[in-house]
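fold-stage: in
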Amino acid sequence: MNAITKSFTGRKRIRKSFGRLPEVAPMPNLIDVQRASYEAFLQMEVHPDARTNTGLQEVFKSVFPIDDFAGRGRLEFVQYELEEPKYDVEECMQRGMTYAAPLKVRLRLIVWDVDEDTGSRSVRDIKEQDVYMGDMPLMTDNGTFIINGTERVIVSQMHRSPGVFFDHDKGKTHSSGKYLFAARVIPYRGSWLDFEFDAKDICYVRIDRKRKLPATTLLLALDSAHTEKLRVERGDALEPSEIRGMDAEEILNEFYGQVVFTRGPKGWSRPFDPEAFRGVKLSEALVDAKTGQVVAEKDTKLTPRAARKIAEGGTTEVLVGRADILGRYVAEDLVDMTTGEIWAEAGEELTEAKLATIENAGLDRLPTLAIDQSVGPWMRNTLAVDKNTNRDEALMDIYRVMRPGEPPTPETAEALFRGLFFDPER
């Protein structure tokens, strides 16, 4: 329509026609993405031997082969075939049917004879058979599906990519506005793990979004370094009595370094680490343990440059008072090797009475956790509130959370935990 150029009084609107503009770009096929994606999933027109390991082919490959418990039989996947649909699109809409193609899978059953003495296997029988698995819905040319005679559209959704994701609540959960941090571990296939802190800085874990547990419960259920070494040497052929989980000492040393205090004629001393003393305001004068010279005065705030200068001056060890030791946490179990008496357990806080017991026992070496202004005591505090003390108790607790209402046994708890995280076939 030609433009109408009327008076300039504004009574009539000026209309223009854009129908004669040239086409800049062709209109794309907006449903081509969905159609190409579903065709790649089915690979219906691809020869079975030429199919790539994607889509439906990948699903079958991930499930098979299936071995029986005794190791005498195996079921293998050979190929699948999608036959022609029984009814076309129009007939399915008229009859109230689903537009789908029969899916048949060729499976191979292998049966072995096992020598009881040597354990060697020999093939006794091999059979192949096509098994009907069901009807696979097909996509129409319009990118839709016919389900029970009704045309439906499947909306594509985003899949959460595997990885580790960190987040916080922006201070909205607690009344003080404190940030509560969390992390989510999403595997490619398997159970999700959610780690979260509460207002008291206790770290908890959720397995598949179930009820939360102290994070140390999960760590107690994991294999210790000694058990991992045995699994490398002997595989999974371990007796239940040989499997040990991480203990408190191993967990703490996994997250924290150590500050070792030694006692000499001049009292307790510790190694001088410039990084550990950086930014610290001294409550007492800093004295070189070897020379007895004061290298920094009381109430001095050690800057990085000052701490580095003290180290360059040859100071490797400094004297500390009892106040610098009290309130720290023991890094290792302190045990009397003669009587078996435990003076202090890993993670236990050093009080005045506990330190006096250690001194009276004649211990000259006191390993403590390297907790300072930059490394907090969160995992140690989590371990302190955890009621579980060993692997068996942790496995039972995890089983009760994952299978509420079912009475746990050591065998079922072990099988569930291995299946959640360490079974490649699940």
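fold-stage: in (second)
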Amino acid sequence: MALAGVVGGVAWQRRRATEALESEPIAEPWAELGAQGHWLRPNLRGARMVVPDRPHRVEEAREPSRRANLRRTRRFSVSTNADRLRMGEITAAPAPGVTRLVAIGDSVTFGWGVEVEDAFPAQLEAELLRRGHKVEVLNAGVPGQHPPTMGSWLNRIAPRYGVSGVVFSRRVAFNGPHPIQGYADAVRTGQRGLPNARFQIILPPISRFDAGSLTANPAGEGGLIRQQLPDIPLLDLTDTFRAAQGERGFGLKATATGKLALVNLSSGEVLVEATADGRDLPWAICEALDEDDSLREPLMFDSGHPDAEGFVVYARAVADQLEAGGWFNA
């Protein structure tokens, strides 16, 4: 998810030839959310994005020499409405008889690397409509967004839109003091702004190319959140994605000697083995991925973001969860 935190989709294309990773700015500070708040720029029209189309290291997105040599890229564009949301224009209140939900999160909710209609919020709306529910789902995803700003938006901005349900979709950022408490505080801040709305927490799936999950991620994230927010249902989509993927494609595995291996999950064949590098991918594995298009993880296009097919799985699982929670009972 490294690049999404640096920069933020409509039509995308895979490119094998070298193409510069040049992306237009799509976010800016927003005073309404507080001193540290940032959000998408309003009224963007097809802002051009070129990003890595495979798992990558942070340096590959930030350092000019690395950016210039990345071979596998994905192009997409970003448009926003006057309300700074990645979707078409909306009315102040939902249409009569329509339940308005908001999906809020970081680059995963935003739909990093896919067409806007393939992003999770649009897929969730389409899935719920197919099931006979009259709903509208707002896309309040922002690449690189942090839970406190998500809470501020729900508290200060979302009440304008007649929202009756919130899908809070983000994993905990374990890179500061008291991360679980900060996450819980953000959700509670949102609840204070929307006291009558239902809340559902979604933990996006962990990729099989997420080196941090094998070397540095604290265990029991969902359980720790539940201890702080026992009244809010939580769904971790990692197992859902693992079941849908099966033992196909490629991914990382930790070796008995503490190294990371790039493995064919169907055959068990080890293609590359390299020394672990904290939460980042070893260079040797990055180079192998750049050279061979077939070395992919089903349902994900990099180490943090589902592809269009993956977002269908994502949306169906969330729709099941909302129905099971009685969100649409008469």
